[in-house]
């Protein structure tokens, strides 16, 4: 019997074979980037989960812990700065701004200590070196120069922290931290407005300082581990009633000194 001749169009090079091969290649191309992405470091998910621990209020990230620490640090220097403005401010607008700082950070400091206690976090008890330098600058200034230094140093500091509060509020999965960010947002925005109402803010210098980014925003750098309780459903938190303030009318130029 004569051997049967080969049939054209069969095998991997047939129409059906080419279709199957193409589908397999496409599937491999879709799967490979997923495997590769899972092995990468420095992605948004990595940052979000960096040093994250479980609490009954939801996951607590390094970013969350750093935010809690920074709220405490802000109060440690802005509260005495406000008290100082009540004594050294040469205008009612500056003294009113000082009063807002005192009331706002008294409220926030109570909140942050309560949050830290529930999360088992240790808090600093004195300002950092840069904050001490700001306080020293204010202590050495007198008269109208004091008013200008007070308004601009505090306005720059609040402008930088305002974006930090927004970052934490947008990303945190911890209900306690989220409530604290809400309170911080209200307080910081009030302080920004009251400092601007003094009429001493140098807008050009402020824009340059904010653009320079000399004080970097919060980053999720590894920090000390927090509590390690088993994860449970987040407990809803009702924040304390935020203080309400009335702002003086905004000034378009530095107000005259008062006797």
TrEMBL record:
Pfam families given in the database record: DUF4142
Keyword list, A-Z: Membrane, Transmembrane, Transmembrane helix
Transmembrane segments: 12-35
Domain DUF4142: 64-195
Bias kind Pro residues: ranges: 222-236, 246-259
Region Disordered: start-end pairs: 212-259
Database matches in InterPro entries: DUF4142 (IPR025419), Ferritin-like (IPR012347)
Low complexity bias: start-end ranges: 212-221
UniProt-recorded name of the protein: DUF4142 domain-containing protein
């Amino acid at each position: 019997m004569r051997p049967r001749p080969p049939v054209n169009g069969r095998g991997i090079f047939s129409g059906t074979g080419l279709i199957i091969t193409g589908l397999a290649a496409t599937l491999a191309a879709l799967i490979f980037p997923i495997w590769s992405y899972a092995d990468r470091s420095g992605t948004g998910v990595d940052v979000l989960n960096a040093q994250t621990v479980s609490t009954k209020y939801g996951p607590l990230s390094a970013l969350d812990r750093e935010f809690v620490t920074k709220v405490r640090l802000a109060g440690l220097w802005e509260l005495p700065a406000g008290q100082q403005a009540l004594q050294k401010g040469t205008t009612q607008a500056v003294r009113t701004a000082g009063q807002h700082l005192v009331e706002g950070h008294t409220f926030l400091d109570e909140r942050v200590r309560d949050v830290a206690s529930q999360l088992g976090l240790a808090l600093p008890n004195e300002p950092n070196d840069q904050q001490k330098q700001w306080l020293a600058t204010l202590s050495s200034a007198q008269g109208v120069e004091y008013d200008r230094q007070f308004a601009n140093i505090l306005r720059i500091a609040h402008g930088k922290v305002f974006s930090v509060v927004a970052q934490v509020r947008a990303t945190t999965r911890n209900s306690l931290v989220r409530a604290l960010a809400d309170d911080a947002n209200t307080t910081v925005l009030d302080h920004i407005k009251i400092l601007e109402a003094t009429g001493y803010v140098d807008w050009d210098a402020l824009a340059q300082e904010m653009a320079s980014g000399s004080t970097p925003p919060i980053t999720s750098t590894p920090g000390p581990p927090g509590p390690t309780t088993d994860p449970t459903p987040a407990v809803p938190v009702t924040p304390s009633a935020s203080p309400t303030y009335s702002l003086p009318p905004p000034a378009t130029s530095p107000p005259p000194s008062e006797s």
